[in-house]
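Batch job 17 of 40 flagged for manual review because the log was empty.
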Amino acid sequence: MTPHAEYPRPHFDRSHTWSSLNGDWDFRPDTERDWNATITVPFAWETPASGIEAHWLPLAWYRRRITVPPGWAGQRVVLHFGAVHHEATVWVNDVEVATHRGGYTPFEADVTDALREGEQEVVVRVSAPLDKRELAHGKQRSIPRDDFDGVCFTPSSGIWQSVWLEARPATHLAALALRPTPGLDGIEVTARVEGPSEATLRLTVRETGATAEIPVAGTGRTVLPVAGPRLWSPEDPYLYHVDAELVSACGTDRVAAYTGLRRVEAIGEDLYLNGRRLFVRGVLDQGYWPRTGITAPDDAALRHDLELAAAAGYNLVRKHLKLEDPRFVHHADLLGMLVWAEPAATGRFSPESVAAFEEQIAPMVERDGNSPAVVIWGLYNEEWGLDWDIPGDPAKQEATARAYDLLKAIDPTRPAVDNSGWAHVKTDLLDWHYYDESAASWGRTVAALLDGEQDDFPVRLGPDFVVRKKLAGVPAQPLRGLPNLNSEYGGGFTCVERAWHLRWQTQELRRHDRLAGYVYTELYDVEHESAGLLDFERRAKDLAGVDPADVNAVTALVLDVVPVAPGRDLLSAEREVTVPVRVSHHGTEPVSGHLHAAWTPVFGRAPALPGVEGPRIEAKPFLLSGPAEVRAALPAGWTSGRLHLALVSGGAVLARSAVDVDTHTGFVIGDDRP
């Protein structure tokens, strides 16, 4: 069975004339001369799935014998690589046909002139330097180590995305960019054509039958109108497919592409999708799997991770420091999951590392730019590859601004983040990464940032090394008038602690109407990093009765409580407690209902049916409601318990939360008093 047998490039689909080269290839380290091993492509050579499991191997060779389909006679034959880490040289029948540098970007080679009668031999040499600090390597470990080695993982070297052949005429479509018109009533088409002949491009919108025909020499542009447009959104991820037929003296080339009609924009301090306020409820996804490294075990695994994020209440996935397999974005398009996409990071600042980072920007946009799901482009992250010193070095400020300018020149239609989490130089979104193990200081710092009382925050870079990171890396960077996002947060060392922080930290973020969204760290564990809601195998953890879907719901409860510790949110000398409750609502219409309360033991899951009806409360969209007080007494004989709170309207539960009450008021380790 061929691994990853699906067509690899859904946004530029020539699947009517392709042949997968995934599967078994001959393999040898550079130190050996004999082809005495077999590797399974497209799995990196460190992984068990590859059949090799070779670690810290800097140079290796691949070989495969192939046959070109006889029906391709008269066409140009093209060899495609989705991604190879890090530098590849390719020969066909001893003729060098391609070299490529960059472990996350695709490349191709027209191999027609190297072909012979009968069987062909493809050989690939891959260099994967152990010292990756000046390479775009994302979360892969380096020797010598990066400064951020503690949050990096096993390298994934060699061919790690699909390899395949395609046939096309000499004059062919090289790119097909689809973008919604500003009025969302048509599709702007930009086609790039390569080859010796003049050509005519015929375009058809499959869903409506709308057509256009234009001559193309080099680059051609047109607009396909869409009557009665149906907009793409998370609630209705409707796609428009464009069939392109390029006719020239060389023959006819056919490509299918698609997009969705949607507009994402930052207006003042708010994000909008299709003219409606958007609150980002995001989760970090690092794109690693236990036995397959940075390659998903199969296509279903890519979709499954998106489904897991949706089941936890998230509407956006931030694919972190990695250009993921393009089928990931394809599944997000189909499912309606928003995506924050970003390139792989480098490890230190130098002209070489800056160039390596920038080389990813144009391929990223060309490959994934048709996707309606991609709503945010990221660039640098926490000054990685900039030696953690944007404010102190004009050269690093210039590199950051240049990356932003390069991206926006290619795609001005999406918001872009220049340096996620820390000092900003030129950005559309003012995002920040704030981690804190204290619920009390967490709430205070978040409030100070969002109330405008402070524009910096503490970052722990070591056990005894805390620095304050400024939001602005240069004086010209505005700190008002841009959407604010907390794009990394989370705390706790056990799964129970992490669930506790998820619940209380997220509610504090939702307390502030100025916030445009958040990204929780993270969806699942990766190797030694146990910060996930799920374990590395994507299995559920013990979250002590906390349901992330309640935490991340469109409508959520915000409790006016500063929690003390897991299992002891609220200490009370009396059995009766009073809890002020507010509602955070990000729907399109106001909500109202009655608050209900019910008791279970501490860490108990919410009862299916609401408990005793309490006060009425209502909330308008994107405005935190005023408080309503819920009074409840622990059942007779109980000294502690979990008070479940629910907003109920018309018999339906709109929002849930809980508070653990303890009448043992003595100090215990783990108390977190303000």
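Reviewer: the log was empty due to a logging misconfiguration, but the result itself is present. The two ends are 59 Å apart (CA to CA). Unflagging and moving on to job 18.
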